[in-house]
Write a structure and sequence with these properties.
Blueprint: H1 12-18, H2 26-36, H3 49-60, E1 65-66, H4 67-74, H5 78-91, E2 99-104, E3 107-112, H6 117-124, H7 134-146, E4 149-150, H8 151-158, H9 163-171, E5 175-180, E6 186-190, H10 192-197, H11 216-234
Antiparallel strand pairs: 1-3, 2-3, 4-6, 5-6
Helix pairs in contact: 3-5, 4-5, 7-9
Length: 286
């Protein structure tokens, strides 16, 4: 005997609609969450303050530092420094960082990892820019404050020829040509590289020359040098007992050249700077 027919009581289609949707795969959910949130990798555990101090001391030293010297510098005992060095050994374990903690000659030293040697050789093999000579530094300062300025003007201010210094500064990209003066001389100005090397946002950040207040001794020395240079140009020599500081002040404001002469004849004679390179033949345009 068959049981009662319940097909009318059970609706298959309506039951399927009431079932919850199938859950998404776990991998898809994780990827979606990672896309929505910026997940940063966990930070490494912080090292002790003593280990950080020892690390900085080893970074500053180009020679191996002995354990006792590290203890004295850190104002602590050798045992504490030894524990800090063990902590650094784990931090600078081979393969973890670009540096290694090495024990050499009875001391400790931070050195580059062997795998970084090719890159280090390429970096250190690059030609290094030599420092500015005093003549180049003086010329650069004159251009920076008086730009655009011509080479003859630089020569008159320095009292020595500026050809070599201008050429070198131009080759190194610190100054550049900025047209010509009304007399045909090349004008120079500083470049963006000059601002970058000296950490300046603009020429307005140059130090104020008026802030320099010379002492009486410096003033007397400068005055004596000027007087001796004036005597040399006039054919006279400074004699013993002649105090340049007691001479009357020379006022050349508005002074005119003698009849039959030009003012250029009385300009300071350019001499070769001993610290400069030999100059080439003068440029006719200057």
């Amino acid at each position: 005997m068959s049981g009662p027919d319940r097909s009318d009581d059970f609706d298959v289609e309506s039951t399927a609609e009431e079932l919850p949707p199938e859950p998404e795969p776990v991998e898809a959910v994780v990827e979606e969450l990672l896309d929505e949130a910026e997940v940063e990798p966990p930070l490494p555990p912080e090292q002790s303050g003593l280990a950080s101090t020892v690390e900085s001391l080893l970074f500053l030293s180009s020679e191996p530092v002995r354990l006792d010297d590290l203890a004295v510098a850190c104002d602590t005992g050798p045992e504490e420094v030894a524990a800090a060095l063990n902590e650094l050994r784990r931090v600078f374990a081979p393969g973890r960082r670009g540096l290694l903690l090495r024990e050499i000659g009875g001391g400790f030293l931070l050195s580059s990892a062997p795998e970084t040697e090719p890159a280090a050789r390429r970096l250190l093999a690059a030609p290094r820019t030599p420092p500015l000579t005093p003549a180049q530094a003086e010329t650069l300062a004159i251009v920076a404050y008086l730009q655009p300025v011509s080479r003859p003007e630089i020569t008159r201010i320095r009292g020595v020829a500026a050809d070599s210094a201008c050429n070198t500064l131009t080759e190194r990209g610190m100054i550049e040509e900025a047209g010509r003066s009304q007399f045909g001389a090349v004008l120079y100005r500083t470049t963006g590289l000059f601002l970058k090397l000296f950490g300046l946002d603009g020429l307005a950040d140059l130090p104020d020359p008026s802030a320099w207040d010379p002492t009486p001794e410096e003033t007397a020395t400068l005055r004596e040098r000027l007087m001796i240079a004036g005597d040399a140009r006039g054919g006279g020599d400074a004699v013993d007992g002649d105090d340049p500081t007691e001479r009357p002040t020379l006022d050349l404001t508005g002074a005119a050249a003698p009849a039959g002469h030009t003012a250029s004849e009385f300009a300071p004679t350019a001499q070769q700077d001993p610290g400069d390179e030999p100059d080439t033949a003068p440029d006719p345009a200057d």
